[in-house]
Amino acid sequence: MLDEQQRQLVLQDLHTTFDFVRWLASSFNRSDVYFGHGTDNPWDEAYSLVYQALSLAEAPNPQIDAARLTYEEKELIFSWAIERINEQKPLSYITNTAWFCDRPYYVDERVLVPRSPIAELINQSFKAYLPAQPQRILDLCTGSGCIAIACAYQFLDAEVDAVDLSEDALAVCEINVEHHGMWERVIPIQSDVFSGVQGQKYDLIVSNPPYVDQEDMDDLPSEFKHEPEMGLAAGHDGLDIVKTILQQAPEHLSEQGVLIVEVGNSQVHMESVFPDVNFNWIEFEQGGMGVFVLTREELVAYKNIFAGE
Predict the structure, then answer these.
(1) Cβ neighbours of 215 (radius 10 Å)
(2) Cross-strand bridge partners of residue 105
(3) In what order do the strands lie in the sheet with 136-140?
(4) What is the three-class DSSP state of 46?
């Protein structure tokens, strides 16, 4: 825990950018913090915090590291360190910024911090899975809107619907749509799964829905407690919403349409509940797991299984 005595020593004894990076990394190592919202180690987290406090988006730079900081900059870094360490708050909620597909997005505690491996698929234009360039895309459970907006950047001729049940999440999504100048192509819609897009069909449906099972919810590190439970929890096996998606998706896919859904650690439950379904589980080059692909044709073929018949 950081306190006033440490604050005085830090502001007095530390001078350069790297002084603060090194001090932060050591402080993280001595603290009960969890890295899982953009970085996976104390050094990267320290660099990210310090550079964002200095309004720098660059990778670590020796000249910047050697630069002396102003008193106000030192104060800001220490105040952010208190939130990160004492409150165990994810850094993205402190800075109100998260990166997805190499672009910044506004985030706060109304939405999850973006971290989906689906970003890798977007950067590759889903080439291994789409028969043609999609004209209509649905981002189901959009949260901050990062997947919808990233898809709009990647497919310049596509229209994207960004749906979520949470009004709070849609308010954040609208901030990002405005920031990225996407009002003509990305449409935020309040919807309980598909309820708000009745009669609409899409060439691609992408979803990172709530999928955390009860056991994992009970064991989540403190950092995740800052995120909206509505965006994480999905019943005993984590499949409450995914089951609905599987049942209803065929009605909203074009003939050659494709469904891509992230279920994370609940992949094991998917395979247990649906042992006869041949899910196409994606292998990621940059890390990540629990994302499957099914075509409309496959969804229709498994219709009775998904309906529990």
Answers:
(1) 11
(2) 98
(3) 186-190, 159-164, 136-140, 202-207, 253-262, 291-295, 280-281
(4) helix
pLDDT at 19: 98
Domains and CATH numbers, the chain: 4-95 (no CATH), 101-306 (3.40.50.150)
For 48-103, write each residue's pLDDT tens digit. Answer: 999 999 999 778 899 999 999 999 999 999 999 999 999 999 999 999 999 999 99
CA distance linking residue 126 with residue 224, whole number of Å:
29
CA distances from 215 to 211, 219, 220, 226, 229 (A): 12, 7, 9, 18, 14
Reading the block at residue 160, the tokens are: 């994207």
Encoded amino acid at 82, one letter: I
The secondary element (H helix, E strand) that includes residue 5 is helix 4-13
Q: Are strands 97-100 and 103-106 parallel, antiparallel or unpaired?
A: antiparallel
pLDDT value, residue 21:
97
Between CA 75 and CA 8 the distance in angstroms is: 10
Query: Residue 279 in contact with residue 270, Cβ under 8 Å?
Result: yes
The confidence score (pLDDT) of residue 132 equals: 95
pLDDT value at residue 152: 98
Identify the pLDDT of residue 4.
84
Look at the block and give the residue holding tokens 């985030």: 107
Residues of the chain where predicted confidence (pLDDT) is lower than 50: none
Q: Is 183 left (phi over 0), alpha (psi -120 to 50) or beta?
A: alpha
pLDDT on residue 3: 83
